[in-house]
Amino acid sequence: MRANLREHIEKIIPLTDEEFAFICTHFSTKKFKKHQFLIQKGDPVKYCYFVISGLLKLVYTDDSAKEHIVSFAMEDWWESDYYAFFTQTEATMSLECLEDTEVLCFSLDDYKKMCDGLQKMERFFLEKANFGFLGSQRRIISWLTSNSKERYEQLLKQSPSLIQRVPKSLIASYLGISRETLSRLSS
Amino acid sequence: MRANLREHIEKIIPLTDEEFAFICTHFSTKKFKKHQFLIQKGDPVKYCYFVISGLLKLVYTDDSAKEHIVSFAMEDWWESDYYAFFTQTEATMSLECLEDTEVLCFSLDDYKKMCDGLQKMERFFLEKANFGFLGSQRRIISWLTSNSKERYEQLLKQSPSLIQRVPKSLIASYLGISRETLSRLSS
DNA sequence: TTCGTGATGTGACATATCTCACTTTAAATT
DNA sequence: AATTTAAAGTGAGATATGTCACATCACGAA
């Protein structure tokens, strides 16, 4: 089960068995059922999560109690309310299971210990952060350059499996359009 | 002039004089006039830039030759076509001066040497990458939750100086609306 | 099975935004 | 100062999207 994690890290940086053992001491395993919350708005954010199996949604709830999907996280994805995690403040978003989900997670303290204790791990996080930034920037560009239909088609192309696993109303929220509009795009 | 850079880095990590001297060997200075390009779409991206003075726009040009502002960069901001920079591929965006601009810059080679030679610098880049990601995510949330007027007001609040220095047509492009719509928001 | 809930589709109308054309104003260039 | 160019405002009509209401369908719980 931690094999997923090792394989994931080694896509970026090869590890010795000792190094991976060191890394493992900083992770713990957790299991959640569909509809359970890993992070709830207003609570402290103790962990950053790596999804082994299952599916999560990161949700921002606005003043009028409307939910907006900031992102999804499936197998091999990292997720958290990163701002709250890094600054150790209250969650501004919630992280909820769309399916039964198994994760590995670490605390900020463990994060620092991994970075300090193993430079490779700091390098890994740097790569991940860079790619995370690039992903967000790509999403912004997609929004600047494309209409709803095009953005939906790009998502379909980019994450076809997601569309199978997630209700269309959530896909619509992720794309920033109403579920009715998304429904009409297909026809 | 490099004092800006040192101060900027030391907001995150204190440096000794030797460390800063090491860092400096990897930066070079460049000056550009208004309307000049630091990066042109299709060309290789040799550098990542730190703005000492002046103002830049990062532009994505779509298939129908319409320009979209991905971001602005003013004093103390970093900018590049990061994807092209890190992967050493051709620029998909262009980076152009809105004012006479002075920058410090480094190559990918220098980036790697700095990370390898000074762990503090890798830590610095990690922090920067994390904050960059968070900034993009905040922009996405702003787009998901707010209408054009609200997004404009948020920008005004967040970067009041930017609105002074940049034509409204470019602000509109950054917000993903037409210049006419932005013009009508004020009234 | 039966019931209830959530997911999806669709019509009708309101609203936001875009596009195009034109004018006015401000700024840059000679 | 004169001329040119860029920026900004505005009207009118087309288009995209949102909202509300309702109907249908699928699926899991009792």
TrEMBL record, chains A, B:
Residues 30-116 form the Cyclic nucleotide-binding domain. This is Crp/Fnr family transcriptional regulator. Gene3D superfamilies: Jelly Rolls (2.60.120.10). It comes from the Bacteria. Pfam families: cNMP_binding. InterPro entries: cNMP-bd_dom, cNMP-bd_dom_sf, RmlC-like_jellyroll.
